[in-house]
Amino acid sequence: MTPNKLAENLMEKIKHKQANIGFIGLGYVGLPWTVEFARMGFHVWGIDIDKEKVDNITKGISYIPDVPTMDLAQVVKSGHFQATTDFSCIRNLDTINICVPTPLRKTKDPDVSFIDNAANEIAKYIKPGQLIILESTSYPGTTEELVMPIITKTGLEVGKDIFLAFSPERVDPGNKVHTPRNVPKVVGGVSSYCTEAACELYKSCLTQVVPVSSPKVAEMVKLLENTFRIVNIGLVNEIALLSSRLGMNVWEVIDAAKSKPFGFMPFYPGPGLGGHCIPVDPFYLSWKARSLGFEARFIELAGEINGQMPHHVVNLIADALNERGKCIKGSNIHIIGVAYKKDINDVRESPSIDIVDVLHKKGAKISYTDPYVPQLKIEALNERFISRPLDNQLLKSADCVVIITDHSCIDYASIVANASLIIDTRNALKNYRSEKIVTL
Ligand SMILES: NC(=O)c1ccc[n+]([C@@H]2O[C@H](COP(=O)([O-])OP(=O)(O)OC[C@H]3O[C@@H](n4cnc5c(N)ncnc54)[C@H](O)[C@@H]3O)[C@@H](O)[C@H]2O)c1
């Protein structure tokens, strides 16, 4: 390998925290990283097309629960972090990380238009010596087949004039133990200089970096991780449906199985998948597989089983009401927790949306409590629900209380004491025994 002065200069700048760092996309992934790098002493620019987010950052106000407003305000005030909607600041950057959304289209095909837009903005202002890292989850090949051609049409050569890598994001919103700084980061560059430069950047902020041979491998690592989860959740959801037919409690089965010290890892059933990752990312892989004439059958099957879970919850509600001589139509059904998982405010793809949608269409009167989600808008119903404080009167007036999300701050004792019927999809009431509790 011949020495590359541009790469060496860039790595020196990173080592001495003199590099100007940029992040495109300031959501659940981008914002925590900008604040981390700014706290490490770098000068960081955050670019987002959402002016409201940029205005909030400028005022020092965080909109992501994992980023304390105090930490954000401090780095903004010290001048280490500034946010903008103006992409021309890319001219002054040494590194640019892309953290834009990668949703699915209605047809379940990948929507990589956000990556495409971000790469085209970078291409307008790119200059030799810069490092570009894609962090958005996507199908194997995205970095080299989509981003690289946009960058190279400027005449710059990747690996020589400019450095390009993929590094999957593993942030787990709401997780207080595994934070961005202590979770290893996988890095795959287009060339060895690209990998080295990207590793240097992450090394300045976190404990372990795992280099791999190419961006494609790094892209596949992320999809393997999330496919592993969707398939195991699908399996345990199927076991839950079967256990219910066999008249046994699946949670007791899993608890006992996990006493095996090897060869078993517990996964838990639930009301359905939610969030921006598990219900979405594996379908990027199955889409890519199809383009090669290969059917990713585990992914499709897991998607099918997990997709049935919200309907299973509705059936549990209908059966339990029926046993009490009631029906869904006209019943007061109170939902606890609408975020897709505990202790966060994200409702994207949350199973609560499907459950509320179906119950509402069947004539139930719906209310909900979620301290993290003050309002819930359900597009399909053209309805906006407002979170209500959980009080005894509310619980007593409900014909059925359904626990969808087990936020740590919820008062489970008051639910058990005051509700007449509870559908517990998370085993949140495992410490309480009562005839009125129905589990998955
Ligand atoms: N949220 C998670 O837990 C998580 C975990 C791992 C990986 N990921 C992946 O990381 C990526 C980002 O996810 P997220 O949850 O942060 O999304 P998000 O929706 O919270 O944030 C994305 C941000 O990008 C902005 N944006 C969109 N297009 C843009 C553009 N062209 N230029 C500048 N900004 C633009 C949006 O306004 C938004 O603020 C996705 O690929 C996702 O799959 C997310």
Description of the structure:
The chain is of the alpha/beta class. The termini are far apart. The protein has helices at 5-15, 30-39, 51-58, 69-77, 113-125, 142-152, 192-203, 215-245, 250-257, 281-291, 297-323, 351-361, 392-397, 412-418; strands at 20-24, 43-47, 81-84, 95-98, 131-134, 163-166, 185-189, 209-212, 332-336, 365-369, 375-378, 383-386, 400-403, 422-424, 437-439. The strands form three sheets. It has an eight-stranded mixed β-sheet with strand order 3-2-1-4-5-6-7-8, with helices on both faces. A five-stranded parallel β-sheet has the order 10-9-13-14-15. The model has no long low-confidence stretch (mean pLDDT 96). Helix 8 (215-245) runs parallel beside helix 11 (297-323) and helix 11 (297-323) packs across helix 12. Helices cover 40% and strands 14% of the residues. It folds into two domains: 5-213, 3-Layer(aba) Sandwich (Rossmann fold), CATH 3.40.50.720; 229-439, NAD(P)-binding Rossmann-like Domain (Rossmann fold, 3-Layer(aba) Sandwich), CATH 3.40.50.720. Residues 24-30, 47-50, 53, 99-102, 114, 117-118, 136-137, 169, 171, 173, 276-277 line the site of nicotinamide-adenine-dinucleotide.
